[in-house]
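Response to reviewer comment R2.3. The reviewers asked that we include at least one raw input/output pair. We reproduce the pair for GP-PDE domain-containing protein here without editing.
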Amino acid sequence: MFQLGDEVTLYSLVFVLALLGTRSPVWSTVITTSLCLFLAMFRFPLVATSRARQVLHPVAGKVSAVAHRGGGHDAPENTLAAIREASRNGATGVELDLEFSADGIPILMHDETVDRTTNGSGPLSKMSFSELRRLDAAAKHRLRSKFVVEKIPTLEEAVKECIKLQLTIYFDVKGHPDEAAAALKDMYKRYPVLYNSSIVCSFEPKVIYRMRQSDPEVLTALTHRPWSLSTLGDGTPRFSSVWKHHWMTMMDILLDWAHHHLLWKLCGVSAFLIQKNFVSQNYVQYWAQRGVEVVAWTINTKVEKEYFQEVLHINYITDSLVEDCEPHY
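Raw output as returned:
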């Protein structure tokens, strides 16, 4: 449920900033009113709470454990083998990364290159699907002797496998907003069960907004890690330049504010995927008051899982369903 206090805070802040910038009450009022009209005209409403609950909690009253990249610690990530292994290990759902081959075939892959996970080398943008299909997606996995010659699957192959195994799908879209929206819209059209068993997620608000434009009935979520512009996943600064680091830190503050006060509302998301270190009971309550569920990532130890299940009662994304492990960034 959207809170009136949010609107007051948002428009008050915009008015004050506009007043500081223009020194004109008239122009400040015009700018603030324009923002108000823009949001009223172009924001998407939240999908019905009952359907969001069905997707996020397919087992009523139970926290969902979602296998990150299909459970990349337990099986080669983003493969059909990973999806099957996640199901065997008791996952409620799987998070899968959507990418595209050079000839436009939607596939599962996290990186922009094939180097880290396969026996090949090179960027996806320069490799056709037939070339990608010849690669072994298990070649560099710690359990490669168990998973012999895994192929890079198409999006549709993964969708069909998840439907067969009754797994909820968290589609993680890294970019390509137009192509991703078109590919996913086609999947939802061909497999309508996805409306009640999947959610589209992205770090990029434009991807989510484009998805809602393409099909307003699709459940969506924004993914966020505070300080992501200025630091890497392990906390290391992205830039050696002090000036650039401080500049990107300021951008991080602005981006974080936008996610929590503007972008979620504009996109009409039903969930907010947030890095685990920033989750607390107050944070979960903040989003609950707005009708948005929190999903934490990446939860990889037994102690953490118990905390998110028993104390916070929220869904979590994990690299392993069977043992403690280091996070995959």
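The beta strands are 65-68, 93-100, 106-108, 168-173, 198-202, 220-224, 271-275, 293-297, 315-318. The chain is about 40% helix and 15% strand. Further pairs are available on request from the corresponding author.
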